[in-house]
Amino acid sequence: MVIDVDKRGHTLLVVEDSRSVAGLLADRIGLIDGVVVKVAGTLEEARQVVLANRHDLFLAVLDLNLPDAPDGEVVPWVMSQGVPVLVLTAGLDDNERDGLMDMGIVDYVNKTNPSEIEHVVRTVERIYRNRHISVLVVDDSNSARAYLTELLRRYGYRLLEARDGAAALAQLERHEDIRLILCDQNMPGMDGVTLIGRIRQRYSRSHLCIIGMSSYGSGMLSARLLKAGANDFIKRPFLEEEFFVRVNQNVELIELIRSMEESANRDPLTGLHNRRYLAEAGQMLFDTALREGKGLAVVLMDLDHFKSINDRFGHFGGDEVLRAVARHLGKVTRKSDILARYGGEEFCVVAQNLSVDEARLLAEKLRNEVKSMQLNIKDAALRLTMSVGLATAPGRGLEDMLHRADEALYEAKSAGRDQVRIASEPGG
Ligand SMILES: Nc1nc2c(ncn2[C@@H]2O[C@H](COP(=O)(O)OP(=O)(O)OP(=O)(O)O)[C@@H](O)[C@H]2O)c(=O)[nH]1
């Protein structure tokens, strides 16, 4: 069951009567791409901002002591408007901390400590990004699930629930975007260790992270959960602050791994996939096409006389042309195709589910798209052509198809460029 996939807004409210602290926070938070910061210095001003922006506020950062609200009155009022709250204090005793956490605030921060101001900025950024992160809570107890989802909702995560292992596996099938799983150990049917083991057979540590949870058991249990594939373990009952730190750290780690993977698979100049990705993902397309008896096309493209473009417009001008070509090729390809920069001025498309005639048509469409580009580099109009080699017969594998497409491309160049040549059958 999806219980929260709301589209949160982009506006953040800072309520702080110290101009220097408010200015510092607004400047730092304003650097987060997409976030709009509104500042208020009193409860009355805060009311006006909230009422005017209620549907676009995703978080409020509130000072406890305001000239017209000296005892933290701003906190319950803003929360009553459905806006999550992060509290700025000048120090809290245990009772005050308990009172605020019981109200359901996101976090509290000592504003007199500069490093904690950085913590506010990081927390805001985390919450802003969490709208794209789905968390699956797996627990057979309704009340435990309700508690965990209530905590996670404060941090803006998209939430999914499952009451047992089978339901959890079904949720994973349905929701490709799950990045974190909170998994209870003691469940009827399938326990946490078994479920985590099953999940890890299909989903790697770079795809999602898992936090095991349990109220019983010795240190052995946390070791078993970790060995089964959990990234972390939380023992119940826990302090909410610790829960949030562990959840957020695990999500940050997975984001980091994914962004590193993404940059390893991308060509920085054009933003297209690179040759390394093409080799891996193309092999998967090849295997599926062979298994299911569906056609596969490998189209290798090379811009004609590109050297002369560099000579005329310089290397930066040449780079601009390569970026424009990448954008245009992207208009012709489908989402299910792989479009990659294969080398300097060479591009490659691997497309699935195509008959030989459809593959020919695709290759011609790509060639025509580049030919009809109207480029203006340094105020000079420029026209481009490209030569194309196409392979459709599977032969001995993807490498073999690429090799034959390359031979066909060479023929297209030799025959005068600006044309598509189709590779002969393997061994033909
Ligand atoms: N600007 C720019 N140029 C590149 C890049 N990678 C390769 N090139 C240039 O692409 C040109 C390729 O030249 P050649 O292989 O001689 O081929 P061509 O001039 O396109 O001629 P034909 O392929 O025979 O039609 C070289 O001048 C490379 O410097 C790049 O990332 N940026």
TrEMBL record:
Keywords for this protein: Coiled coil, Phosphoprotein
Catalytically driven reaction(s): 2 GTP = 3',3'-c-di-GMP + 2 diphosphate
EC number(s) given by UniProt: 2.7.7.65
A Gene Ontology molecular function term of the record: diguanylate cyclase activity
Gene Ontology CC annotations of this record: plasma membrane
One GO BP: phosphorelay signal transduction system
Segments forming domain GGDEF: 294-425
Keyword Metal-binding tagged: no
Record bears the keyword Coiled coil: yes
Cofactor(s) in the UniProt record: Mg(2+)
4-aspartylphosphate PTM positions: D63, D184
Any coiled-coil regions, as ranges: 356-383
Domain Response regulatory: residue ranges: 11-126, 134-251
Entry protein name: diguanylate cyclase
Organism whose genome encodes this protein: Ectothiorhodospira magna
